[in-house]
UniProtKB/TrEMBL annotation:
Superkingdom, taxonomy of origin: Bacteria
Name under which the protein is recorded: Phospholipid/glycerol acyltransferase domain-containing protein
Phospholipid/glycerol acyltransferase domain sequence ranges: 94-236
GO MF term (any one): acyltransferase activity
């Protein structure tokens, strides 16, 4: 590449970066204050209309991001496969599990889900409530926020364990007043080769799944959801950073969604206190993860031929 071409490429990236950052920042300042202002009215009076308006504002913010993807990244190729057994709609109630490789995963989820599924929420730590704007927005938009106690704290005061469960139940039940998608990254952290080696993970493409969060959500919501959805995201050229994505460094993204059938025995079990049920549940999740690992290998192979 000549010096002139290098300069042109650099200018193009700078221009694209300024465009993306300006639009996302402007959109956030446009949508954020109304969400917060409407949300604070809930302290005085609960209103379904306020909740619906805030969701519309959140979806509008996502929609602008999606427009950026389509116009600023026109050469990005999406390969999306949806299980024919999945009947996705904006009025549904879904639990979703997904592999986790990059901050881009959430953007992929939002891009896919905007016109297909209700607004995606995920469990967050209660401490995030103290982050200006972000924490309050999570709370107002109905993200389940939990006060989790350490094992040492629970050992000193066993009652805290039951308090955690009660907080989780309340947080999940609050979602039932409206359509929702509740996302759980079962690996608990982003995949890296270093973490994979450290864990000695039995899966080629995944870290070990943490089954407790899914067990909790199914215990509370399992008989009230329309589907348990497994989303698999593959970046054929390697997991990108957030900046790489918005600067056009990603050429292909493959997404697969399948429906996971929930056995009858899963519902109503006590994951925390029943070791027999816990072992059986973990084996069930391991089987889901084994199938997912094999699926990722097949998805990657399509780009290596």
């Amino acid at each position: 590449m000549t010096n002139a071409n290098k300069k042109a490429s650099l200018l193009q990236k700078v221009s694209k970066g300024l465009t993306v950052s300006s639009v996302i920042t402007g959109s956030t300042f446009l949508h954020g204050p109304p969400v917060l202002a409407l949300g604070f009215t809930k302290f005085f009076k609960k209103s379904k209309k306020v909740d619906e308006t805030n969701i519309q504002l959140a979806n509008s913010w996502i929609g602008i991001n999606n427009q950026l993807i389509e116009h600023v990244l026109p050469n990005l190729n999406w390969d999306i496969t949806i299980d024919e057994k999945l009947d996705l709609n904006l009025q549904g109630r879904y639990l979703m599990i997904c592999n986790h490789q990059s901050w881009v995963d959430t953007t992929v989820n939002q891009y896919f889900g905007l016109k297909r599924m209700p607004l995606t929420r995920f469990f967050t730590k209660w401490e995030l409530i103290f982050i200006p704007f972000v924490g309050q927005a999570f709370k107002i938009l109905g993200f389940p926020m939990m006060k989790r106690h350490t094992k040492a704290q629970i050992a000193k005061n066993p009652e805290l364990k039951h308090r955690d469960m009660l907080e989780a139940r309340k947080a999940c039940e609050q979602l039932l007043s409206q359509p929702f998608t509740l996302l759980n990254y079962l690996e608990g952290t982003r995949f890296t080769p270093e973490k994979h080696a450290q864990q000695q993970s039995p899966y080629q493409n995944l870290l070990k799944p943490k089954a407790g969060g899914l067990a909790l959500a199914l215990n509370i919501l399992g008989d009230k959801i329309d589907s348990l959805v497994d989303m698999t995201i593959v970046y054929p050229n390697g997991a990108p950073g957030y900046g790489d994505f918005w600067l056009g460094g990603v050429s292909d993204i493959a997404v697969d969604l399948r429906k996971i059938d929930i056995p009858d025995w899963v519902l109503g079990g006590n994951y925390e206190d029943d070791p027999v049920y816990r072992e059986r549940f973990q084996k069930w999740v391991d089987q889901i993860w084994t199938e997912k690992d094999q699926l990722i290998t097949r998805m990657k192979s399509r780009y290596n031929q």
